Amino acid sequence: MALAEGGARFEDGSVRGLVGWVECVVEMFPSLPLESWRESKETLHRFLQVVGKVRLEASQRRNHWWNVPFHITGRGITTRPTGPYGGGDAFCVDFDFVAHRLVVRTLSGREVSFPLAGRSVAAFYADTVAALDALGIQARPQHPYPYDLPDAGRPFAEDEEHRSYDPAAVTRYWQVLTQVSLLLEEYAAGFSGKTSPVHHFWHTFDIAVTRFSGREVPVPPEADPVTREAYSQEVISAGFWFGDENVPAPAFYSYTAPEPADLTTRPLHPSAAQWSPNRGSHLALLTYEDARATPDPWTTVLDFYATAYRAGADLAAWDRTKECPDGITDPHLRP
């Protein structure tokens, strides 16, 4: 084992340390079946959408909506600092999944926070607006309704149905999210072309990184504005989600858009991975439990992402010279 400050990493991938006088073990890819926290996930998903829509209104638009998602922190997730632009008191909103609080902070050092547990979506929305008001922040969701969820026609302010919040399950979600983000950072390092950040999308509740070929794609004007901006160029995405109505279990995934012909004839590794139909195209899928069952889940998932990427890149004739193992482009150091 290799010693680290406050703890040690063991051969099974776990990290053990002392919190107070209690020994804690963080398992690599701990179990988190959807049914074990479905109600809490549905509530949390809507909490994230409320704050995500504040970020959408307050941030500078970036290509492919890169300004919108959350980023991972050492205690949870954050909007990152945002508006106003051109001077003034910028702010950020953090979900603290250690203390289980929402924290709104300004550049001048002012702060308002409140607990996440015990609140309906309606109460969370009201408390978020009140926190913004107390700090003089004008940003508000332009459309304060859920996005692409079954109750998309009900305002956040009227949602008393979703009120479950299991702190232990939410902490586990954040731990899994963090571990997957580090894995995706390693995967992202292998491509020197245009690449998105590793980020957590609040509309679909997944975490992903996207590679771009550099070629533009004709997008029909009748497509919705989210799709037009997201898929204006050829992409191959790799990510993870926690399960939903379409894929009712946590899973690692990859897709190529536009999807080239014969994509599903290409092999995936490991053998448990498969091509799955999804809204008129296909996803490469490896369930979380199948990955966890392997001797080395980390390497298994990286291999899965690599085979899915090669399948799309080969068939769509991507420039494979942009691949850079270990993130190295220095010609004197590359093998």
TrEMBL record:
This is Ava_C0101 and related proteins. Pfam families: DUF5996. It comes from Actinacidiphila guanduensis.
